């Protein structure tokens, strides 16, 4: 028996996927039964890094999604369209789908999973979060009995690669981004990586799986790394932190009888050097899950790149193939409850003002006596207590003051900042970061 794969896309991840499928030796025996039947690309004449016969290449992607011979459509195009429409078309034609496309899933999960459930087909997405790291299936299956309290992740390889090289080598942002693009880590439009959109897509997916409800992507707060400067990386280091782009989904503490609320957010964060996430470097991702009764568990591995991502893609194909082998008349309308998606309601997301966290802020001020006192008074007026205040040096004529707060409600902290901005001695707030 063989399972026919319709591959949409033969770029970084598509090529990695084809390489695995074409070299089954030493892998699970079922890989031998997976056949690359058709491959859809934009440009047939483009040289390819993998041996795919020209006869199976096509630019007619819709024909693959509709082909009665195809069992599993593997969408590795990226972008929203035509990826979304092709996924829906494949489902409508009774195909199972494997995708690495977090942008499509985080926006159109409802439409896609409703269609898939109706048709009795699977839509699998292990590659969409954390690349090769198993995190989707563990949340659905192995950790399924836990009450998840929080997920804190480094889920974007490009930005972690950039921040790591800026920290270790003092490298320039633009040069490192160009390297991440060459290595195949970055999205087609790297703004998605740099400005935190990609991480927001991923944490929305993880939050949905962990907390059992749908997430509206527009309610996920996100900030990228483009404003993180060398000065902040250096001060963070001196204070005992590293700066990471964290994606967080966390259950809020609410009063009894109040509806459950989640925080779902992405932002650069000062991570204490002793925290397990602080040592996650380069393209590596890690997802730190806290739940009851499991406690703390961390998933770590390569979050981007051809091979690792393809490992997740092919494992999804294998999962589907193994189910198809055990049913006589695929597709079966009864879906495996631990592989299908059954969410019906939307999670309630708390506004950022309600977040309680520590902050790091860097101020540029006149070098006049009493400035630190004025800052302290403005913070005190809003009940913000300070863990440390240091005058770190000068930028031209301006003094540079770095403050780290104790835990504070974000709304109060922002009110204090509004008061500080109006102080005559304060030139500007050069940066503002949250602290884990
Ligand atoms: N790169 C990575 O490390 C990771 C990527 N992902 C996700 O995997 C997916 C694929 O990413 P990646 O492999 O990097 O992307 P690439 O840009 O390297 O490859 C995209 C492929 O899709 C084809 N394609 C794109 N649009 C069309 C279209 N309109 N019609 C026909 N063919 C099209 C391209 O054809 P052609 O070759 O002819 O140009 C190319 O083969 C994305 O959703 C991405 O977010 C997930 C995890 C990690
Ligand atoms: N551009 C993404 C690719 C994987 O999802 C990243 O850098 O993590
Ligand atoms: Na994964």
UniProtKB/TrEMBL annotation:
Domain named ACT: residues: 360-436
UniProt keyword Nucleus present: no
Catalytic activity annotation: L-homoserine + NADP(+) = L-aspartate 4-semialdehyde + NADPH + H(+)
UniProt-listed CDD domains: ACT_HSDH-Hom (cd04881)
Taxonomy, superkingdom: Bacteria
Taxonomy of the source species: Bacteria, Bacillati, Cyanobacteriota, Cyanophyceae, Oscillatoriophycideae
SUPFAM superfamilies: ACT-like, Glyceraldehyde-3-phosphate dehydrogenase-like, C-terminal domain, NAD(P)-binding Rossmann-fold domains
Keyword Oxidoreductase: yes
Cofactor: a metal cation
Family: Belongs to the homoserine dehydrogenase family.
InterPro entries: ACT-like_dom_sf, ACT_dom, Asp/hSer_DH_NAD-bd, HDH, HDH_cat, HDH_CS, NAD(P)-bd_dom_sf
Uppermost EC category: oxidoreductase
Coiled-coil annotated spans: none
Pathway(s) served: Amino-acid biosynthesis; L-methionine biosynthesis via de novo pathway; L-homoserine from L-aspartate: step 3/3; Amino-acid biosynthesis; L-threonine biosynthesis; L-threonine from L-aspartate: step 3/5
Protein name, UniProt field: Homoserine dehydrogenase
One Pfam family it belongs to: ACT
Enzyme Commission code: 1.1.1.3
Origin species: Floridaenema flaviceps BLCC-F50
GO terms of molecular function: homoserine dehydrogenase activity
Keywords: Amino-acid biosynthesis, Methionine biosynthesis, NADP, Oxidoreductase, Threonine biosynthesis
